[in-house]
Prior knowledge:
By secondary structure, the chain is an alpha/beta fold. Helices cover 25% and strands 30% of the residues.
Amino acid sequence: MTVDNSINDKTENIFAITASSNYINQALEEAREVDKTLKILQNYGNGILLAATSMEKEDFNNSLLNKRPVFIRHISAFDAVGEINDSMTKEEIAGMIMQHIDYIEKNTKIAVQIRKARGEYYFNPIDLKGEIDKILVELGAEAEIKEPEYIISILLDETSCYIGMSSSYMNISSWSGGMIHYKKDDADISRAKFKLMEAISVFKLDLSKIHHALDLGAAPGGWTSVLLENKIAVTAVDTGDMDERLNKYKNFTYIKANASELELEENSFDLLTSDVSWNAKNTAVMVNKASRFLVDGSYAIITLKLMSDKVRRTIKEVKEIYQEVFDVIAAKQLFHNRDEITLLLRKRS
Ligand SMILES: C[S@@+](CC[C@H](N)C(=O)[O-])C[C@H]1O[C@@H](n2cnc3c(N)ncnc32)[C@H](O)[C@@H]1O
């Protein structure tokens, strides 16, 4: 990746683009499909790129949203760059930041998201956020973290402080850097459950309409537990053992089997989930075969393991296999995905 930090061309619009650091090149390819001349000003090495486009800010942002990128989890547009130094108090920095924010509408929900891209600071970014929140409340807005209408994005890069404000949907994710955090609990059956929770949230899946799920590659049972907790009956399939704590659920069934050799009643499930640790193409063939157990129109949530270097080509080829049976509704490299992406599919009639 070539970095060109000759900034300060006033016609350029600056964005922070965030992805998993393992897939930053794929994220850059996605951004360059919108603007092939996009310039990388900084690659901070932690999954954050600072990029400059000569396109209109809204055009670049909207075109990227319309492309529904798989690897870009978050973007934030900046309107100004302020300078900070050690002699400034956090109150002064907060005041300087707010001078660059054009207009605050009363009673709007605004989240302040501060990220440290590079540099050591004598203040804690959380305290700086607290100062900005105080000013927002004085101006009649609501300082809100969850479901904000607007987001004030701050990126700290040594003495530079990038400042921007946008409608929250423009950022792709309303979580800072697209990093959705869940509370961990010792009672969690597996951390894998967070992948399914994030997929349900990002894909806006309404679980209240689902009655019976088929969970393939289910052991030890994190995904199964999420579905059971949502009052969905689950038939879990794995060659390995499920956590015994799941036995307390009356609507839990476990089949110890290879998921590609299943014999179940056709059209008897209205959700299929698969987190099978298997090659992406073999998994797709297996899921397509299992789709006969699903009612037409049902959703499937599938992790697609990325094992080769040819990541985007693998995704394209695997999607083509799924498209024999399903419509591919969405594909996303979620914050809780490691070397994989998550697909939302819908069985065609
Ligand atoms: C990443 S783990 C699943 C974790 C699970 N989603 C959870 O939340 O606890 C992958 C599972 O796929 C299972 N698996 C791999 N190939 C399989 C196959 N052909 N049939 C059934 N299970 C399989 C493995 O035994 C393993 O338990």
